[in-house]
């Protein structure tokens, strides 16, 4: 019974309040018809394509009687942002370090509906990247394994361009506690900086049955070690002493 004038906008609030870490689905349907009850004139109602036929109702005397707009909604719960101490990966510039990071995923719901592959996710891409892993084999009465997606997200494109080529990450171990429903994931992170840097990233883990967890990671590259010491001996007062040394470039 909402009246909408021509060119007028209508805001439709959608509230999402999940109680478990699984994906929820809903559909928002907008049903519109003319206030005077007349049909919209449309001459070629017999030629309506299949997509349009599913969203309009054609009247007996021709024309369009009502129109439907259908919007699917996927609700993906995200774990509450706690004040977590960032995991720190630290080493000197021009060196390489490996660090293992353990994260705990609470509230994982096995056996829930898997997210549709056609959705547009703002959290983790579903285009089957190399970091997709089937990390938990649920055997406590569940036949399907639980699959997780993970990636490092950065605060800006500038930070991403600085860190993306310096950081590598892969999953090395996973554990499932059926009593507490806590999944433990252990990642191996490789950090090989080429200059001093200090930036943060976010490890984002997403379960294909729904649910997102985020963990802060801080990368610190300190000043590199001294390459060598150059000693110059004086040959006398007011006389120049010269010494030569070579610098090798690692790039073109």
UniProtKB/TrEMBL annotation:
GO terms for biological process: sperm axoneme assembly. It holds the Pfam family Ig_CFAP47. Residues 78-221 form the CFAP47-like immunoglobulin-like domain. Transmembrane segments: none annotated. GO terms for cellular component: cilium. This is CFA47 protein. The lineage of its organism: Eukaryota, Metazoa, Chordata, Craniata, Vertebrata.
């Amino acid at each position: 019974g909402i009246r909408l004038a021509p060119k007028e906008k209508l805001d439709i609030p959608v509230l999402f309040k999940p109680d478990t870490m699984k994906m929820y689905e809903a559909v928002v349907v907008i049903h519109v018809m003319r206030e005077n009850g007349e049909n919209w004139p449309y001459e070629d109602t017999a030629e309506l394509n299949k997509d349009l036929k599913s969203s309009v109702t054609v009247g007996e005397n021709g024309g369009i009687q009502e129109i439907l707009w259908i919007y699917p909604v996927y609700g993906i719960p995200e774990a509450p942002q706690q004040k977590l101490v960032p995991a720190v990966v630290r080493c000197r510039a021009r060196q390489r370090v490996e660090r293992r990071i353990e994260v705990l995923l609470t509230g994982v719901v096995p056996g829930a509906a898997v997210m549709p592959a056609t959705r547009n996710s703002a959290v983790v891409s579903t285009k089957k990247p190399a970091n997709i892993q089937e990390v938990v084999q649920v055997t406590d009465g569940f036949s399907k394994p639980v699959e997780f997606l993970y990636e490092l997200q950065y605060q800006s494109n500038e930070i991403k361009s600085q860190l993306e080529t310096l950081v590598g990450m892969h999953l090395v171990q996973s554990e499932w506690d059926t009593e507490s429903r806590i999944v433990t994931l252990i990642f191996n992170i490789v950090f090989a900086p080429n200059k001093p840097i200090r930036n943060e990233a976010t490890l984002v883990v997403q379960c294909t049955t729904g649910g997102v967890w985020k963990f802060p990671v801080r990368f610190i590259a300190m000043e590199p070690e001294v390459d060598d010491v150059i000693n110059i001996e004086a040959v006398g007062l007011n006389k120049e002493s010269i010494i030569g040394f070579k610098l090798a470039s690692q790039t073109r």
